[in-house]
Design goal:
Residues 1168-1193 are annotated as: Disordered. It comes from Puccinia graminis f. sp. tritici. One of its GO terms (biological process) is proteolysis. The chain contains 36 helices and 46 strands. By secondary structure, it is an alpha+beta fold. It has seven domains: 11-165, Apoptosis, Tumor Necrosis Factor Receptor Associated Protein 2, Chain A (Sandwich); 181-290 and 503-528, Cysteine proteinases (Cathepsin B, Chain A, Alpha-Beta Complex); 297-499, Cysteine proteinases (Cathepsin B, Chain A, Alpha-Beta Complex), CATH 3.90.70; 532-765, Ubiquitin-like (UB roll) (Roll), CATH 3.10.20; 766-858, Ubiquitin-like (UB roll); 865-952, Phosphatidylinositol 3-kinase Catalytic Subunit, Chain A, domain 1 (Ubiquitin-like (UB roll), Roll), CATH 3.10.20.90; 962-1052, no CATH class. Strand 44 (919-925) and strand 45 (928-932) form a beta hairpin. The longest helix has 26 residues, at 509-534. It is flat.
């Protein structure tokens, strides 16, 4: 609510204040005033309505409740806008924005205005807009600028300002209830997969590029595994193409995320896109679509240095797959438009002063310009806007949220080189925008896409796809709440081909079959889940399953170490009557209903206590489950008792309570524990009375002596006293006892020699620790490739386990080696100490990995533990693998001993003519040479000796393959300007140089001899593998090693400089300290400056000392320094390419801006605090007082 001294009669002024134009086209505007009389006389809760008035072709009314109901608080007026047109058809809607003014009926300047409201009126929902409540107390008395009360003589005036808007998309202010993206737009959304938030909109952008999608479909993937990037992308595209609703692809997109990427960060969008392109390009080689992606996305540009006063130019043409544009100029000012960013990209930079270009012996040092111009743009242009920069105060990359306008139609001809073909159409149409909404690191990404030239624009987010206006798309570049991160432009002349429709016939047949199977499986799972809501699972334990079961309780239901028991299982409707289920069950199992009785296994002991009462005709299966199971989500477990007519007759005649005892037999000879059924005993009978009954059922000899035990818990099996009565044992229905034949001491000794469990107690202990281990072959080329499972105790030793496996494989247990698993894959070789539990149980959590991998060795494992197996692949001419050699070497041997051993096999190794007959031994991983051995390394210190490579040691000549080297370097992530990826870059480049020159650690070995040819290779490799801003630094170097020294110095100095700069900023002079010594403070600054200059900082030392001394004084914040640093880092090449003169000028400009903004008057030069500092570093009291006053300047 607002009060203003303006009149509601001034419609234009009132609208500007309360209902400003939002840019949405207007279909009609109207203003209507409604005078209400007798406000105080109107009964509470009764409303009054104005006459109808028409705006935008629709009828409206003002609805007012003059007095709020008493139970809702103080008296207040409620005002509503009602759409009163009843003649509208089904699905009708109108979008309206409106505001009210309640005013004195005679003075329009005395009013209270309401803020803007919006409403999508439909014939489905409430026909009234949102309420506006105003307390009567504010209306009945003069208030603020109102000299009169708004309600005067019980009369007031309500004026409605109504603007009917044109709903260009049909979805303005839609609530999206029952909204169908596929029906409305023809497209479906990708739901959030929990990974990188930019992934879904990026996949939608790629999907909408039909030429790209068709090329992806043509990549042969029939035999690819689930982790294939190409197959994953095909599946995602096919799902988007065929699904009728939003799809979740978390299972698929996990294969699009690589460990080298932190895809949770928005600035990895560019890297993710490039990695995806590289992955796909590598899969298209020698396929029908080989070169398609390069044709689609690859352009050409030229980097050049051109002398100003002589006719000399150095240039290099390069291929690019995307363009990265700055959104700030080198001075840190925001660029307004995309065209300005392109203009800044191709703007030449001066090279003069101490940055003159060395044009060779003929021309020497010359003033020059350096820059980049485009030679050719691709049919599809990906433009990435640089949305992050390093923040010195926060010491991290931060998002730049400056706005940048971009056009729908973009003419790229102005940014082409003079030599480019100007006859080609270089006009591009905007096809897609990837946008971030909200403040990082929160918020989310979405995409605006125009699928083809004649279509609407659509917004793709995690929930739905909706049509939007072109105005909304362009607004994402100027609205403060959104930031465009990536733009996709398509060349106008190619638009028809690139966005040509794709049909079902273009989808690979094997992909259709795969997705149909997945859809069928998904439908089955959905059906099962739906049935779970109305069905429950019922498991039946019978006499037969009890006899077949070995273990604790009557059956095994849920255990991570062993599979569950195989029991008759039924899916039963929760509302089915128990008696009906019993009848069906009896018929299925071959009984009459009156022949069986069902006993629930009561939680938590899982014992069949009492039978289900059958006198309740309404008892349902769900009610039975809920009263017997500990959780409503558990399965219903029932024991099926087959009635004994003789026992039933005796039970009726006997007055003594009878107990149903479940009985198991432990067979020592067979090492089995199996149920034999149940017995009925009377409470007064003794335990010994059960022995004759058991002997009879088991058909043992009469008088056979038995030992009887009670099964209490897995670790608690106790002998029973034969003289106890069953009442004294406190056994209940369904409790379990176990018996075993009582043997003599001699018989037990014979059985013990067979390594058997001699009593139920020890056997139960085995069962408690039992686990089913799955054994799989460690390698795919082993002689025996069988998979099998063995149940064994977790207490078994390594040797005992090896014997069991050796028996199964018919292999010497001493020559078996085992490896544990992690997520189903081989992990670490198992030591021969410890137990099975140590091998399978994770020390970090409660998980059990029940898969072990085995290897069949030629030698005993204990011999291998004193020796190391060496496996070497010999690489001959043209990097061809000519053979593999395996042998054992003592752990104390050296790598040179391995080379000597390999030389003994030289009859199988072919050296080239005039060879030195020397061997180079190295490791090779992920397509890169990791390490070349000197020969002195001991085998005990080498981690992996079964992945060694050897080749002939050659000396490099000028005859090397630059094309092959540059091709490898295409897949190297370029060294960034800030050097954050320097260690990874160095390792990769050194590996490629090693493969090219034959010398490992060529850059970093201090005693390495580098020839002219090798130095040339180094220079070319570095130039091809660094950020564009660093290329000229490399090109200007006289040699390859000088270029590397410059790069290394730049990286080392930048990290050191930041540390020292922070240290300087922390030495702020404390004005509140009366004992502070400004001379000593200056000396601290000077010492720190010295450290900074030793690190390679390029600035005149005197200028630097003055600058930082000034910034370290009180009442001056660090803003100037932060701005200077930001401007330096924003320059191409950062501090490595800025001259002393430019840096000093930057500092002076920033300080001058700082003084002007804060109206600070600088002290005269002769009063600078550094003047006449005593040698001792102390200052007299009066001088200290003067210096303190000067610090206020």
């Amino acid at each position: 609510m607002y009060k203003q001294v303006l009149s509601i009669d001034d419609t234009e002024a009132y609208l500007a204040k309360y209902l400003p134009d939002t840019g949405i086209p207007v279909e009609g505007f109207g203003k209507y005033s409604y005078k209400i009389k007798g406000v105080a006389k109107t009964p509470r809760s009764e409303c009054v309505k104005s006459k109808s008035f028409v705006v935008g072709g629709h009828e409206w009314r003002i609805v007012c409740y003059p007095r709020r109901p008493q139970d809702e608080g103080d008296d207040a007026i409620g005002i509503f806008l009602q759409c009163s047109d009843p003649r509208q058809p089904e699905g009708w809607h109108v979008c309206t924005e409106f505001a009210f003014a309640i005013s004195n009926p005679k003075d329009g300047t005395c009013y209270i205005g309401t803020s803007r409201s919006t409403k999508r009126f439909t014939n489905y929902g409430e026909g009234w807009g949102p309420p506006h409540i105003i307390e009567l107390e504010k209306l009945c008395n003069p208030n603020g600028s109102c000299l009169k009360p708004i309600i005067e003589n019980d009369v007031t005036m309500i004026t409605a300002f109504v603007r009917v808007l044109k709903d260009e998309t049909g979805l303005l202010w839609h609530d999206f209830v029952n909204y169908d993206s596929k029906k409305e737009t023809g497209y479906v959304a990708l739901t959030n997969n929990g990974g990188a938030s930019f992934m879904n909109p990026l996949l939608q952008l790629l999907f909408s590029n039909n030429y790209f999608r068709n090329a992806v479909y043509q990549i042969p993937t029939e035999h690819d595994g689930a982790d294939s990037v190409a197959l994953t992308l095909q599946r995602i595209f096919c799902v988007l193409q065929t699904s009728d609703s939003a799809v979740g692809i978390a299972e698929l997109t996990k294969y699009l995320v690589w460990k080298s990427l932190d895809v949770s960060q928005s600035h990895d969008l560019l890297e993710f896109t490039r990695v995806l392109q590289h992955k796909l390009q590598s899969r298209t080689k020698n396929t029908p679509v080989d070169g398609t992606f390069q044709h689609l996305f690859a352009g050409k540009h030229k980097r050049y240095i051109k002398c100003t006063h002589v006719d000399y130019e150095s240039s290099q043409e390069e291929t690019f797959f995307d363009v990265q544009l700055e959104i700030k100029d080198p001075e840190g000012r925001a660029l307004r438009t995309l065209q300005e960013s392109f203009k800044a990209y191709v703007a030449p930079q001066k090279m003069d002063g101490d940055k003159k270009y060395d044009a060779g012996e003929v021309h020497g040092l010359q003033d020059a310009h350096k820059g980049t111009v485009f030679l050719e743009f691709p049919p599809v242009l990906h433009v990435h806007l640089k949305r992050s920069e390093y923040n010195l105060q926060k010491d991290k990359q931060v998002e730049i949220d400056d706005q940048l306008e971009f056009p729908v139609r973009l003419d790229l001809a102005p940014y082409l080189d003079e030599s480019a073909d100007k006859t080609v159409d270089w006009n591009y149409q905007l096809h897609g925008v990837l946008v971030h909404s909200g403040k990082p690191p929160k918020g989310n990404f979405f995409a605006f896409i125009k699928p083809h030239a004649e279509s609407k624009w659509y917004k793709f987010d995690d929930d739905r796809v909706i049509p939007v206006t072109e105005r909304e798309v362009l607004k994402s570049g100027t609205d403060s709440s959104t930031n465009a991160h990536m733009l996709v432009y398509v060349r106008e002349s190619k638009e028809g081909d690139i966005l040509a429709p794709i049909t079902q016939a273009d989808t690979p047949t094997h992909l259709k079959s795969l997705l149909q199977k997945e859809q069928k499986d998904h439908a089955q799972k959905t059906k099962e889940m739906e049935e779970t809501e109305i069905h429950l699972t019922t498991k039946i334990i019978t006499e037969e399953t009890f006899r077949a079961y070995q273990g604790f309780d009557l059956a095994l239901f849920d255990d991570e170490t062993m599979p569950p028991s195989d029991l008759p299982t039924f899916r039963v409707a929760k509302e089915q009557r128990f008696l009906d289920f019993k009848s069906t069950l009896a018929r299925d199992l071959g009984y009459q209903p009156e022949q069986i009785r069902l006993r629930p296994l009561l939680a938590p002991v899982d014992r069949p206590r009492s039978a289900v009462p059958e006198d309740d005709q309404t008892l349902t299966m769900e009610a039975l489950r809920d009263t017997t199971m500990a959780s409503s989500t558990q399965d219903l477990k029932l024991y099926l008792e087959v009635l004994d007519p003789v026992h039933e007759a005796q039970a009726v005649e006997s007055e003594e309570r009878q107990i149903m005892i479940m009985v198991k037999y432990f067979n020592v000879s067979d090492q089995t524990l199996s149920g034999i059924g149940h017995f009925w005993v009377k409470e007064g009978q003794r335990v010994a009375d059960l022995v004759p009954l058991i002997n009879t059922r088991m058909k043992f000899a009469k008088g056979r002596r038995l030992n009887i035990y009670e099964e209490l818990s897995p670790g608690n099996i106790v002998p029973m006293d034969p003289t106890d009565t069953f009442a004294e044992t406190e056994l209940l229905d369904g409790d379990i006892i176990c018996f075993a034949i009582r043997f003599s001491a001699e018989e037990l000794a014979n059985l013990g020699r067979q390594r058997l469990y001699l009593d139920p107690v020890s056997f139960y202990e085995f069962l408690t620790n039992r686990v089913l281990i799955q054994f799989k072959p460690r390698h795919t080329n082993m002689a025996k490739m069988i998979e099998f499972g063995i149940p064994m105790s977790k207490k078994l030793t390594y040797s005992q386990m090896a014997h069991l496996v050796g028996e199964r494989l018919h292999h010497d247990p001493a020559k078996l080696r085992f490896t544990n698993s992690e997520q189903g894959d081989p992990h670490q070789v198992i030591c021969r100490q410890g137990t099975v539990a140590d091998m399978i149980e994770s020390p970090d959590n409660d998980t059990i990995n029940k898969i072990l991998f085995y290897e069949l060795l030629d030698l005993p494992v204990d011999g291998i533990e004193t020796e190391r197996k060496v496996k070497i692949t010999w690489t001959g001419a043209h990097n061809r693998e000519d053979g593999t050699y395996s042998f054992l070497m003592p752990k104390t041997a050296s790598i040179q001993d391995v080379i000597d051993k390999l030389m003994q096999l030289s009859t199988f190794i072919t050296f080239s003519r005039n060879s030195t007959r020397k061997i180079k031994l190295f490791t090779f991983h992920d397509g890169q040479m990791e390490k070349q051995f000197s020969g002195e390394e001991l085998l005990i210190n080498v981690a992996d000796l079964e992945n060694l490579h050897a080749t002939e040691l050659k000396t490099v000549t000028t005859q090397y393959d630059p094309v092959a080297m540059l091709k490898m370097l295409q897949f190297v992530k370029k060294l960034s300007v800030d050097g954050t990826n320097y260690p990874t870059w160095l390792k990769t480049v050194e590996s490629i140089l090693g493969m090219t020159t034959g010398k490992v650690n060529l850059l970093t070995s201090p005693d390495q001899t580098i020839g002219c040819a090798e130095d040339l290779i180094i220079k070319q490799a570095i130039a091809a593998s660094v950020d564009d801003a660093l290329v000229l630094t490399v090109v200007e170097a006289e040699s390859g090693m000088e270029a590397f020294d410059k790069i290394q110095k730049h990286w080392n100095s930048r990290s050191k400089q930041v540390i020292i700069m922070k240290e300087i900023l922390q030495t702020r002079f404390k004005i509140c300290d009366a004992t502070a010594d400004i001379g000593s403070h200056f000396q601290v600054i000077k010492n720190l400056a010295g450290k900074l200059f030793k690190s390679g900082f390029e600035l005149t030392k005197e200028s630097f000392i003055g600058l930082f001394f000034h910034l370290s004084l009180p009442r001056l914040d660090i803003t100037p320094f932060v701005n200077i640093s930001r401007r330096i880092d924003a320059r191409p090449g950062g501090a490595a390419t800025i001259s002393n003169e430019q840096l000093v000028q930057l500092a002076r400009t920033e300080l001058e801006n700082f003084r002007q903004n804060r109206k600070i008057t600088c002290c005269e030069p002769h009063t600078h605090p550094t003047r006449q500092c005593p040698p001792s570093g102390t200052i007299a009291d009066d001088e200290l007082h003067k210096s303190k006053r000067r610090r206020h300047c």
